[in-house]
Amino acid sequence: MANIELLLLFLLASGIVSYFLTKWKSFVGSVFTIFSTMFVFASLAMYGFSGQLDTTVNVIPVLSFAQTNIGFYFAIIIVFVYLMVSFFHPYFVGEYKYKNSYNVMFLLSLAGVIGTFFADNFIQLFFAFEFIVWTSMLLIPMGKSKKAAVSYYGFSAAGSFAMLFGILVMRSVSGSFDIDLGLASLAGGQATLVFVMFLVAAFSKLGAFPFHIWLPEAHGNAPHPFSPVLSGALVKLGAFVAVFAILRIMPSTPLIDFANSNLPHIPLGQYAVVILGSLSIVFGTLMAIKEDDAKKLLAYSSMSHGGYILVAFGIMTSQAVAGGFYHILAHALASAGAFMAIAAVAKQTGTTKMSELGGMIHKMPITYIVYLVAIISMAGIPPMGGFISKWLIFQAVIDKGMIFVAIAVFFGSIGSFLYVFRPLAALFLGQELREYKVKVKEAPFLMLLPMLIITALNVYTGVIPSAILNFTNGMLVDLGLAPVSITMWDIVGTTGTLNPALIALVFGFGVVIAFIIFIVLKKSKKVTLMETYTAGNFVHDEQLLHYTKDFYAPLERLYIKYTTIMKEFYETLAVKVKEIGRFGKYLFMNKFIGTTILWIIAILLFLLVGEVL
Amino acid sequence: MSITILNFLIGLGIAFFGFVLQTSIAGLNRKIVGRLQKRVGPRWYQEFLDIFKLLSKRATSHGWIFDFGVIMALGGIIATAMFMPLTSTFNAFGTYDNFFIFVYLLAVGMLGMAMSASGSGNPWASIGVMRALTTMLAYEVPFMIIILTIIKIAGSSLTGIQLYQQAAGNNWFLIALPLGGIVGFISLMGMLGKKPFETYIAPAEIASGPMVEYGGKQLGMLFIMHEITVFIEVSLFVHLFLGGATNIFIFILKYFLVYTLANLISNVNGRFKIDQVVTFFYKWPLILAIVQAFIAIYLGWVI
Description:
The complex is a heterodimer. Helices cover 69% and strands 1% of the residues of chain A. Chain A is mostly helical. Among the domains of chain A are: 1-143, no CATH class; 564-612. In chain A, a hairpin with a 4-residue loop joins strand 1 and strand 2 (497-498). Chain A starts with a helix and ends with a helix. Chain B is mainly alpha-helical. At the A-B interface, helix 16, helix 17, helix 18, strand 2 and helix 21 of A face helix 1, strand 1, helix 3, helix 4 and helix 5 of B.
């Protein structure tokens, strides 16, 4: 039996060990990190699926744990992403300035993950949640920019404090920090308050509109092996909080309840979530289309996918929620795969800017395949996992007849073809640039291994989803929803039946036919990439034949002037906050010491009077 | 239902039928357009000759992704065509002909072609792909809103949608949802890459865009792919808006009329710039689609 408490202690202990090992030799310390993470993943996977994790507490006095289906689902996905990413450490950690703390922080944040998802009371959940924020905040500045960490922490802190406020409100109502008790005790205005507070936390963690500013900063500037963790794993913490807010705090008033039954019957709060989720999808897509840095592009795509998860939860039918849960898994795998492929390229070339890269496919074909499969899943194209979740979400949107939300989800779905294709075309395909012709080579085996595992899982989730959907059905039952009807091969939606394995099989059949046609015909003559049609001109430089900069320029021109509005809003907000701070400083801390004392006495009196009342 | 190898063979037969049908009709259309322009026009089987000539020629290849992309493109499109029902009673995989398969499995083929074109290392090809994807972003959203309305009314199985329209008392969706029919047809023009939405081919401007580097068997295979893609798109319109077909002859007739109309409109139009395509589709077609969806779903007025 795997004991949660022992796993936590194990992670703390191995964090200390890895500190000294990494100090001695970074490669050894990183390999130790891989094995520690693998041990935790194996213990969870071995006992967790049958619900046999030992949650008793023997050593640490205050803690208490519980295993829930939802918590375990999130935990296993996130720990899996951690495990996969840890394989990158031997090749990256040695370069960082504080290399010994890197592995420690990595393992400690993993401990925080386990603490969060197996917590059985809110205050412990909050502390574990904060623990993740603090450890990951120390990891991010080891990449390109220190400012990114400030931005990340700023939004995370806003979310965390909002959540703490919500938790304390629940505590004052129910008298305990217990999760089920607290959520059940809410009613009326307090329910609305906690709902809003938890949503602030969920949105800021998920990087959804309007709290999305930190996402590209943090994802784009984090160390290369940590970006997959941020996007594939830690962002999903927001979805976890969103489950509490949207699905468990029960709505009170339906939106517009005409006698006509054609209108979507969704409570006002949830409807607002759906609208904000739709805005996240649209803005994330538009921003991703114009982005030049591959990692920032994927970060904006995370924002858009966070929007899909919020839309799914907000619609609240069993299909939508199942789609949302499945999307969490599909996006975690797809985004981890894509980020890891980009990290492998960045390791070889030292840049993630698409305008500076080209033709990587010739030296890194396996990395290319990994990226290709990941983006097929991300764009929601069969036969990959993203298709299943998007199909379920579409079913729900259509079933509810939500026209404007449909515009957003379809726009995001087609738009994702545009932005995921950009790194594919600009970074992997096209002319092989001269500076990369010699020194670039395929990533080492230890880095390819996790990428290939993720690729296989991307395909598995898209072909045989029934096992996972069975598990999410268990989660739906926990939430009081009807399970989605599935058989071994079919998923039955409200408007039709889907057989993912058949689609994959037919696709394979089609490719085989095409391959036969290709192979029986005359063999082609191989020519170089420079031998292309140039309208009679002699072009001698690869760079001149490589179309990458401002790829979607005609489309971008239509909306480029509106893209900075949110950033400017937050900058203005920051200036205003600073001004308030200066005003406070002026009041309290000017050169007359007497003013400061006066204010202190006044506040003390105020508090004392308040206590007497 | 249980799926056997027979289903796969029927599916392959449908894909092949689609290829032959569309290639013949495209040849006939070349003749019709020729008469429109006071020319004689080529023979109706000219398209077949072109494709077979290309398949028999020796070509150049720009690396493995260039070839692999072509295979993936043709394979994806054949797979999509295999799901297409021909009439309301004849298809390969029963009720698994879910609408979303056609939109998204088609995208695999498109992705393969885009990948192959970008892999050729020619900037015209990349520009063509960029324009094709942008055009897709333009026409797909209004189209999907109309599809949402249809699916909400009749379910998402294409056979089911045909049967719904053929049932007594129901009209074709072209009549039942008149605004939707208009939007559907405009989107079909975009899908087919007919003028004025021909921006991503634009032979005089970007040298046929994605196709610029191809020759020989690769180009021949992409021609086959293009014909089957057109078959899928026009058949979708026939099944979604024109009540499908009860037998194969009605299907061919409706198919011929739709394709010829699109082609005739195409031949009297100029070409939009790419940003005009986007602004066009996000103006009237989108507004019409929203109005139609609102009328049909919230007010329940379906003629």
